[in-house]
């Protein structure tokens, strides 16, 4: 007899309106919850294999537009209207205000410095000397390992392998470039092929675990701050003293002083980011554009830097060392997510660096706005005015 608590599925054609409806009815019978709004959607379920299982409908999230923001990047050039999916009142307004300041100061300069995606297997031996010697063998045979790994992918390229010895284990960190895909699955498949080749060709016995957790997938780590995971992208602006005073009612000297205090507080707390709120802009853009939302935990980490200049202006920059974005594959091709990417001119191949630059520019705008709001005393009052939906 079938299990009465088992979620209904059709192994032949599960991604369909019919089976989504069957599951909603099942859940209503089991829980009493009505799913009327969840069941209203414009997405064709046949597009969803590979994105979700046991599909029942959609969770609709409001999308607001911030901007425009002038980006002077190597890939993103011009004015961009930025979609932010959020339920937090004041957020879109705050980012727009920061973008206005940036625009009146000539725009934000953005640079993608480097980009890697990792898989980090651990190889286990009888003792530390065997592990050490294995590392030497890996270095000597890198070209063969690279060739094998790249047979599994059209666009992934193995650039280098880092090594760490701990006890009788050699931890390897395979670093790939992955084009316009985020690439976690791509590098997993490539590294599996490489590890199998290594075990078959290494002259001594070895065993491995495909991930020894030094790839830090979906986790923040200080290693990623130093050795980029995703894209290391930097956004810079020189804020004019007159513009900041006119729009934000804040003096650059006061902003510089407050930023030092915030840096100290973040350092004492051991925070992954020392600026006001990088995760707000990144998460909102990720949801709107079909990114893997769990990558926010890695992507939000970074450094907000500043320098008060002799003329009273202030230089500010955001460095995001592990920004993981894609413009191809995953959730980017779903209808509403694709539309948001098209809004930015970032859908499809050859656009990932452009998207990364826009994300970094947006983070900087949000940090400028919230930092000034805290200093100016209108942080709480803005939330009271725009963010008091209590229903």
From TrEMBL:
Molecular functions (GO terms): hydroxymethylglutaryl-CoA reductase (NADPH) activity
InterPro entries: HMG_CoA_Rdtase, HMG_CoA_Rdtase_cat_sf, HMG_CoA_Rdtase_eu_arc, HMG_CoA_Rdtase_NAD(P)-bd_sf, HMG_CoA_Rdtase_sub-bd_dom_sf
This protein's UniProt keywords: NADP, Oxidoreductase
Its EC number(s): 1.1.1.34
Membrane-spanning residues: none
Any Gene Ontology biological process: isoprenoid biosynthetic process
UniProt xrefs under PROSITE patterns: HMG_COA_REDUCTASE_4
SUPFAM superfamilies in UniProt: NAD-binding domain of HMG-CoA reductase, Substrate-binding domain of HMG-CoA reductase
Keyword NADP in annotation: yes
EC class name: oxidoreductase
Family per similarity comment: Belongs to the HMG-CoA reductase family.
Protein name: hydroxymethylglutaryl-CoA reductase (NADPH)
């Amino acid at each position: 007899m079938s299990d009465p608590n088992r979620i209904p599925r059709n192994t032949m054609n599960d991604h369909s309106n019919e089976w989504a409806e069957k599951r909603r009815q099942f859940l209503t019978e089991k829980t009493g919850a009505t799913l009327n709004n969840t069941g209203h959607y414009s997405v064709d379920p046949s597009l969803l294999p590979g994105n979700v299982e046991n599909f029942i409908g959609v969770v609709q999230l409001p999308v607001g537009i911030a901007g425009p923001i002038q980006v002077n990047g190597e890939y993103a050039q011009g004015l961009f209207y930025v979609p932010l999916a959020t339920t937090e009142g004041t957020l879109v307004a705050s980012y727009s205000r920061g973008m206005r300041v940036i625009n009146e100061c000539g725009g934000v300069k953005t640079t993608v410095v480097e980009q890697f995606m990792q898989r980090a297997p651990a190889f286990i031996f009888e003792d530390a000397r065997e592990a050490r010697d294995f590392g030497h063998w890996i270095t000597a045979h890198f070209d063969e390992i690279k060739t094998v790994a790249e047979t599994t992918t059209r666009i992934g390229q193995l650039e280098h392998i880092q090594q760490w010895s701990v006890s009788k284990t050699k931890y390897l960190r395979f670093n790939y470039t992955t084009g316009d895909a985020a690439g976690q699955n791509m590098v997993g498949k490539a590294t599996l092929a490489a590890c199998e080749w290594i075990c078959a060709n290494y002259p001594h016995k070895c065993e491995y675990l495909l991930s020894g957790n030094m790839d830090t997938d979906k986790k923040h780590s200080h290693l990623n701050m130093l050795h980029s995971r995703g894209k290391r992208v930097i956004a810079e602006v020189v804020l004019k003293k007159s513009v900041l005073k006119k729009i934000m009612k804040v003096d650059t000297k006061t902003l510089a002083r407050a930023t030092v205090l915030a840096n100290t507080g973040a350092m004492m707390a051991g925070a992954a980011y020392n600026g006001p709120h990088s995760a707000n802009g990144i998460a909102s853009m990720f949801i709107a554009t079909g990114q893997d939302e769990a990558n926010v935990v890695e992507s939000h980490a970074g450094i907000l830097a500043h320098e008060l200049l002799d003329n009273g202006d202030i230089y500010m920059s955001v460095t995001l060392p592990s920004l993981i974005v894609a413009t191809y594959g995953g959730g980017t091709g779903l209808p509403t997510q694709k539309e948001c990417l098209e809004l930015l001119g970032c859908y499809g191949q050859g656009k990932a660096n452009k998207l990364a630059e826009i994300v970094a520019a947006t983070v900087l705008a949000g940090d400028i706005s919230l930092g000034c709001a805290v200093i100016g005393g209108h942080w709480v009052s803005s939330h009271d005015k725009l963010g008091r939906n209590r229903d």
